Amino acid sequence: MRRSRRRTREGCEISPLGARGAVDKPSDEGRDRLFSAALFVLALLPRLYVAIAWAREPVWDGHYYDFGARRIAEGLGYSDDVVVGGQRIWHPWCHYPVGYSGFLAIFYRLFGAGPATAPVVNAVTGALVAVLVHRLARYATTKNRARAAGLLCALDPGLIIYAALVMTEPLAALGLVAAGWLVARDAKEKPLRGALLAGLTLGLATLVRPQSLLCAPALGLFTLGDGTLRTKLKKGLVTAGLALATAVLVVVPWTARNCRVMDGCAFVSTNAGWNLAIGASPHATGRFETLRASDGCKVVTGQVQQDQCWRDEGLRWITNDPIRWLSLVPKKLGHTFDHESFPMGYLGEANPAAWPEPRKATGRAVLTAVHVVLLALAALGLVASPLGRLPLRARLTQIAALLAVVGVVLHGISADAHPFWPLALLIVLFGALPLPGAPARNASVGYLVFAVATVALTHAVFFGEDRYHVVITPVLCLLAALVFRPSRALAAPAAAAVDVPHRPDQV
């Protein structure tokens, strides 16, 4: 039976049967490559300015990332020196993930460890994130919306300012978006290559941010393809399994190093138990709090033993009072999603004279406003426009979803604590539930929603800080570009126009 196709307003084609196969390469490849190149320059210029003009000596966690990178660049490995009996002794590390320090060490070795090296590298990394958001968005939506997603990422003030911070989030975001793009690009013609490359990328991202590995199962969405449910699941599981196995193999040599030189084995780093205890201790507030020996781990001999001790203490505190631990979840999510203030605090700590409190307050207000708008638009990107000839049930459902987003925003503005974190949960709910009248959702959108869910879940379990949402700010930019799409119901043969990519992978 021959499948007829309709052209949309964007010049795309869609099969009335749903086009549920793997991703096809979008058209206009040459023009899109030219746009990506221009986007890189547009994103790079403001980041370079910030990197050169605002960066100072790294502070907070950035101090340790920079120090670790210097040691690796000097050939001393991920380590420091301790003084025992008047002698300096080499002391290995793995408390912090090694990936970001190892990445910086490459450039420290090539260009020296000057104060501008890491910020300039961050600027280039951030510009590449914007480009890859555009490249991935081409498999999620129309040409113009994909370009809008790239522009949102290129011009987001929080991501621009992050170039001056020696922190892991932009590099982790690069790995997250790149893995999705690689598997989307190869899903139809070379799915095994896509899975391998995505797994390699996700493995490197795991060395930067261990919870990146949680996104591996969502890579299977890109290759579900056509056929019976069993066939589609088989294809998806092969992709997800191959990507996961590849990612783990990338990490295993570092795990073996930890087993060899540390006081025990650690997959990537030794802060998971520590973070669990911070979010579960009797004096937990939902955000970072300093743990002291008096809190439970008084005698430890190494980083692995210390982490295991705090893990056991955290589990004990959760078991003893699970209701209190669960009651902290809204606070943890609030500290993660309600505001964006970490970049201003970092800059103020690194250069107090240049960042007095009024200037930092203005910066926090601007960054928070942009972040909240992105969160709201990302949620609306999964809600269909109520306009058009929709069935009553579909129309009412989408109106209710729209009102839910508006209600959360209005409540967040008016309430004293300004709780905007429910918007992140709405993104996950709208992306996961088969809501009547919803806009088309393909594998790229599913992968992005899954990434948001992993961040929300991780920090609901451990603790929250606003810098942790930066890794999915590019994801929010892409989802925000989907706002005001028509309902999927309008993709019926009688519909005049549908806002979907070229032959998308509907799931």
How many domains? The number is 1
Number of helices: 19
Mean pLDDT: 90
Tell how many strands the DSSP assignment holds.
4
Share of helical residues? 55-70%
Poorly predicted ranges? 1-25, 492-500, 502-507
Please report the distance between the alpha carbons of the first and last residues. Answer: 22 Å
What order do the helices and strands follow? EEHHEEHHHHHHHHHHHHHHHHH
Radius of gyration (Å): 23 Å
Major sheet, described briefly? 2 strands, antiparallel
Strand order of the largest sheet: 1-2
Shape verdict: globular
Strand portion, in percent?
under 5%
Structural class: mainly alpha
Short summary of the structure?
It is a multi-pass membrane protein. With 507 residues, the protein is mainly alpha-helical.
Describe this structure in words.
- The protein contains 19 helices and 4 strands.
- It has one domain.
- A hairpin with a 2-residue loop joins strand 3 and strand 4.
- The strands form 2 sheets. Strands 1-2 form a two-stranded antiparallel ribbon. Strands 3-4 form a two-stranded antiparallel ribbon.
- Helix 2 (61-73) packs across helix 3, helix 4 (117-137) runs antiparallel to helix 5 (143-155) and helix 8 (191-208) packs parallel to helix 9.
- With 507 residues, the protein is mainly α.
- It has helices at residues 29-53, 61-73, 99-111, 117-137, 143-155, 157-161, 169-186, 191-208, 229-261, 272-278, 303-320, 322-327, 329-337, 342-350, 357-380, 392-414, 422-432, 443-461, 473-480, and strands spanning 6-7, 13-14, 79-84, 87-92.
- The chain crosses the membrane at residues 34-55, 116-137, 236-254, 365-384, 396-414, 420-438, 445-462, 468-484.
